[in-house]
Design goal:
This protein has 185 residues and is α/β, with parallel strands linked by helices. Helix 5 packs across helix 7 and helix 6 crosses helix 7. The chain is globular.
Amino acid sequence: MEIQGRHLNVVDVEATCWPDAAPPDMTSEIIEIGLTVVDVPARKRVAKHRILVRPERSTVSMFCTELTGLTQREVDTGVSFARACEILRAEHRSGSRPWTSWGDYDRKQFLRQCADTEVAYPYGEGHVNAKAVFATAHNLRRCGMDQALRTAGLPLEGRHHSGADDAWNIAALVLGLMDAGQFEV
């Protein structure tokens, strides 16, 4: 049995994207959910997960592949969005664990896609915008994850715009904020 408040889910999603607006017959949808579990009392990252999600209302553009490294062929092997949300609830306790993401994009993308597809929102209300906390802590107006890593003196581990790798890197930033007493769950 998990101790309430012991773990934090750090989430980063990648979605179908284009260099400009979405084509008229497509909508941006999640194709990868990266999730790193942080053991809050131990102050360490304990698990790194990746859920590939098969898009149903769009395809992966060349721009998206260049940005994320994900191909249409790869995401075609993923699970449905509904199944991905079930996995988040069942395996990662997303409905009861606090969670964080870099900015508010991830939370809003889940809300939009859940509403559009009539899939139950997989998260509880315990979301913390890590980007806003970091920017306030470092007196920054704008702050991308890569800039935050440089500011914190941390290396970029893995590929930027890989959901799993970005969640891992965001977790490192969150741990630094926790150690400084600037991030609470």
